[in-house]
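Friendly challenge for the regulars: who can give me the structure tokens for this chain first? No prize, just bragging rights.
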Amino acid sequence: MNSNSSSSHPSINIKRRHFLSTLGAAAVATSLAPNSLLAMTSIAKSRIPLGLDAHSIRGMRWKAPKILQFAIDHKMDGVLFNNLSYFESLDDKYLKTLRKTADDHAVQIYMGAGGICANGARFKKTYGDAEDLVKLGIKVATTLGSPIVNVKIGNIKDRFLPGGIQPRAKEAIRVLKACSKQAQDAGIKFGFENHAADLRSEELLPIIKEVGTDVCGAMIDPGNALWAMEDPMVHVKALAPYVVANSVRDYTVWPSEDGAQFQWMAVGEGMMDVKTYIQALHQSNPKMPIFVESISNAVRPLPFLTEAHWEGYPDLAAKDITDFLKLLRKGRQPKIDKPKPGEDKKKFDQQHQVNEFRKSVEYLRKNCDAGLKLK
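First reply, four minutes later:
Bragging rights claimed.
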């Protein structure tokens, strides 16, 4: 996939014939310019910013500059780099160059720092301890012009560590409180993500409130909500008032012998009430882009009929998954796309990821008034 591939540029057709038949060229120049500007402003106000989550094209193994160019080529309004590994360097020159390119093409950069719990299953000390990581994230976000720094605990494995998820939640609160003043001074908010079934909405919301809603909000992911046995539509209703960032994809879920299986899908191809979901996010945070994180073509287990699975959810009552169970009864298993015999698996996966992203973007543009840069 060439990073410079693109669709046609957006344009706004302005009919001039009537003006030219009645006015001189000078009058046309005077009257048309402000009218054109007002029309463009009106269109922008009526539409929702649209962005690329860099994980959508993970198979490319690109770093930030190529990912940004891909976003530019696809007329995105934003791009999300959800961990620091996307950046080849963290020095100011590199980051300022990246920001200038983004600014020149009206692309808003959002970024994340990753897992911030030293007592988590997968915490890495690549950038020092957890506080060092968050403070570095704030510095990078400031240079890039990102309004947020996304953070998380980790993944579902954290639920099965000694003590369950709560010791990780307490550690995350401690770290963010220790870094809150630096974030506030920089005018940046933390976006706390529900990642890979580590947190349900009723577990994430107390973290946000304890850290302080003036400095911490929700980074919402519907696919990960489903993984934690939540109906994503219930999840977004609970967290939308606090949303500062998002990664959106569709989903489906269906019964299996030990509970359920699920699959993430291109937006518009699954069970999500997409219009309602997108509007919930947009009404709460109108300037925030809807970031497409397309992950699909893989079945994942959700063995909630096994005792082992509930060891990770000791305080969860049966009534708390009622909406999930109702959703489960409606879903069906989709087909898996596979490479043709002899086709290169890596290239197939790369192109499949790009195609899923483009399908999602096209659906959001056509059905949800998403994208400020019209074709």
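The longest helix spans residues 345-367. The mean pLDDT is 90. Your move, everyone else.
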